[in-house]
Specification:
Blueprint lengths: L11 H10 L8 H6 L5 H10 L1 H12 L8 E4 L7 E4 L2 E2 L1 H10 L7 E6 L5 E5 H17 L7 E5 L4 H12 L3 E4 L6 H11 L3 E5 L2 E3 L2 E3 L1 H11 L5 E5 L13 E3 H5 L13 E2 L3 E7 L7 E6 L2 H14 L6 E4 L6 H13 L3 E5 L10 H9 L3 E4 L1 H8 L4 H4 L8 E4 L6 H11 L6 E3 L33 E4 L12 E5 L9 E2 L3 H9 L8 E9 L5 E6 L3 E4 L2 E4 H9 L4 E11 L3 E10 L7 H14 L8 E4 L13 H9 L12
Parallel strand pairs: 4-17, 6-7, 6-8, 7-14, 8-11, 11-12, 16-17, 16-18, 18-19, 19-20, 29-30
Antiparallel strand pairs: 1-2, 3-13, 4-5, 9-10, 14-15, 15-23, 21-22, 22-24, 24-25, 26-27, 28-29
Helix pairs in contact: 3-4, 4-11, 5-6, 5-12, 6-7, 8-9, 11-12, 14-16
Bound molecules: 5'-O-[(S)-butoxy(hydroxy)phosphoryl]adenosine.
5'-O-[(S)-butoxy(hydroxy)phosphoryl]adenosine (WT7) binds next to helix 12, strand 24 and strand 25.
Amino acid sequence: MSELDPNVHPDAKREVEILAAESELYAPAAEVVSNAYLPDYLALRQSALADITAFWDARATEMIDWYEPYAQVLDDSSKPFYKWFVGGKTNIAHNALDRHIKTWRKNKLALIWEAEDGEQRTFSYFRLWQEVNRFANVLKSMGVKKGDTVTIYMGRVPELSIAMLATAKIGAIHSVVYGGFSEQALASRIEDAQSKVLVTCDGAWLRGKTINLKDIADEAVRRSPVVQSVIVYQRTKQTVRMEQGRDYWWHELMALPIASSKCTSEVMDAEDPLFILYTSGTTGRPKGVLHTCGGYQVHIATTLQYVFDLKDDDRWWCAADQGWITGHSYIVYSPLILGATSFMYEGSPDFPYPNRWWSLVEKYGITILYTAPTAIRGLMRYGEAWANRHDLSSLRLLGTVGEPINPEAWRWYHRVIGKERCPIMDTWWQTETGGFMITPTPVVPLKPGSATLPFAGIDADVVREDGTPCDANEDGYLVIRQPWPGMARTIWGDPERYVQQYWSDFAKQGWYFTGDSARKDQDGYFWIIGRMDDVIKVSGYRLGTAEVESALVSHKDVAEAACIGVPDELRGNVIHAFCILNNGVNGSDSLADALKQHVRTEIGPIAVPAKINFVDSLPKTRSGKIMRRLLKAQVLGQPIGDTSTLAD
Ligand code: WT7
């Protein structure tokens, strides 16, 4: 945890905008309230907080099928290792697919997918169920058993969802690595999860070009040779090297008799692992956040239902990637649990033209669109004419996630896309929280740039370092005071780090520390300020300074490196790197370019620093910790604040 430094506000411009937006209130239209799934949500929210176990207990019965009922809602006997729905037996694939096959939903569209080149594929619940069963049988035939991990590294194709659901169906644990990551990021995640099976693609389409995922996968497997089998889904049909006895084509396996379309879902305990998802923390080592089978389902199904108000005739578009928690929770699992129709688009929002997204909304009659501030800002810069060429009247709700949305982008989204009719759900949450935590529902009056209020049953607050509550409008630490069902259960293979990372700053009170700073205004509305730790949000992607720094120092010319996040109009933040070079090496533009390329191949394009500065020394504390705060103040031209711990 770092200290709150009033001198270095992460984004002074946003600060001014927020002050104006605090008094700007958008009350929901009467018809939005009367049509809402939960018109009396605000009252329910009050009673839920008074007894969170009663609230989640009721949701667990309402939303989820259990093979065997749970005996206890919450077991807090080994804090902070909470257990939810103790003794309950379930399987997420059962709730997402099996149960719908026995109802009229069998023939409902589960998934509509459009490729970047315009190709279209659709899956009814029945077809998706069959495909998942077939791939589940393929995995079994490769020797995957309950409790084994399967690493999945693919582009944005339906088969990624199928691979996840199939893994969950047989009780194995998936670890999806975002398709934009590169060799070392993938290798270290495979290694940490000890996956014997890797599912990947030959390539992925991006902006009319192909990215050779299989080459990257090959290099990662060379670095982490635990992998014994690689299953390759053919997407781009580019030439790839297939290693005899290790690599198999997806379509060939799916054509074998073993790939039967019947497969019984494994009976899982509520607390059995469901998936690992790696995210950035304060050290370079990948941090595998673990989610489990029971509570996670309850949390994501409840939040999607209440916040996005899903109805049977909706067409839901969560425009994220399945490789992030947003995709896991709100593309793959919760829409299927609720029996909804989801839309997915493979490519880039402005390809081939800046109207691509808006044309998709019109073409598919999207009713709810959920995306990130960086995407909104990116499309906003092309001007509103691109959106105005399309009929967006099917939309009824909008959403945003990933970083604070600046009020200006919020207003544009509200006016140009939502035509001032569609409430915007600004959902604050994290990989670790599993699902939404601070968010409005359609009946909550909105303020542009505020995630509004903690969700029902979520006990969030803004406090001082000593745990006392902050006054209205005072910046403080965002904490969660009581457990919630979708919470991460541990860090894979490292329970101590889990305790250290999330539960040690407010250990005395037993609270979870989010890593974010925030403030509550006079109406109790939450305003997220940003990360307080060494995590940088670039275009909504979460990166650890340590990850980027260790990629930089793995280059032969770099002795030491420090990275900071600097506010950026489009991407929220960009990375600036400071490098000390090895003796005898001189900094140059070409070396800076080579270092950027190195970071690109090690971690991926999202981690590439916007700027690399060559320096002779870095500011450090006497104990040797780099004081990134000082570097940041210097770049932003702000006062450097307290330097009493500076060594030199
Ligand atoms: C961090 C978590 C949860 C899905 C995507 C991000 C920031 C997230 C918001 C929001 C302001 C937000 C926080 C948080 N964040 N949503 N609506 N308003 N900030 O998951 O990659 O684990 O990142 O994203 O800083 O701690 P993640």
